[in-house]
């Protein structure tokens, strides 16, 4: 039995469809990330699971219980919002205890829960401070602690790190992962940051327009995106795309775009079979070799247009098949702007998409 299950869930605001017949199962102890651009419906779905929004159709189950019309307090969830929403006049200890006192939890139990949460989140020295005396990262830890003291099976996170700077986001991302490993609770986490999704999730649900485009492990979503939207959204920089056609030449299938030709005879076509016609050829920047001397199935000479040093690696921009093309190389092998280099890759690392539907071939 799943920890959280969403069945045919829809939500409309007037005539506007926000969520469309969504189905989702989250296993016990799983870390699920809802990922997508702004306006895709990920926070709306989380709020429907939390009971903060009434659904137009469908059902929500938590630990096998139909909670579709239950109040948020009765769903057995703990929620962490984007804003800290701490009471400024209360100490950290007071903020952690506030909800428990309202629920009339015994004082001894409140002390035990606060001590446990403070130990897990390493905020024991902060318990007597007020929010104004805390850093952003410390405030977010307290906000997580406020959910943690509820002692529930399911935690919901709505972009909890988006208000923090890059360094703090990185640090707290690790802390949230450690927290999940310690507690083994079910966690559903909303973000538009693909790095957070790839590093935290057991599985990712990529959303667009109120529909789940792909629901799978980070590795599968990264290496075998089901459509062009997922392929473009996951990865930084995004996947390179070359527009062209699939053709049969000398009895073998090829992808052709002007002077660019790549053999795809060994490409796994996901059971859909090879068919000629317009297609998009996608290859990730890190799957492209530059002046490596390796025997690539495909190679070409290109001129370097832009070089972007990133520290440990470098992004190199050029053109292939008349279209913009990016490679990621280690900094020690970075070519100079204007240089002519040989690039190569294995088409088996590529993705092929139908140009009209965007679906993976």
TrEMBL record:
CDD domains: ABC_MalK_N. It is a peripheral membrane protein. Coiled coil: none annotated. It comes from the Bacteria. GO terms for cellular component: ATP-binding cassette (ABC) transporter complex, substrate-binding subunit-containing. It holds the Pfam family ABC_tran. Signal peptide: none annotated. It is found in: Cell inner membrane. The keyword Protein biosynthesis does not apply. GO terms for biological process: carbohydrate transport. Residues 4-234 form the ABC transporter domain. Keywords: ATP-binding, Nucleotide-binding, Transport. PANTHER family: ABC TRANSPORTER ATP-BINDING PROTEIN (PTHR43875:SF14), MALTODEXTRIN IMPORT ATP-BINDING PROTEIN MSMX (PTHR43875). This is ABC transporter ATP-binding protein. It comes from Aquibium oceanicum.
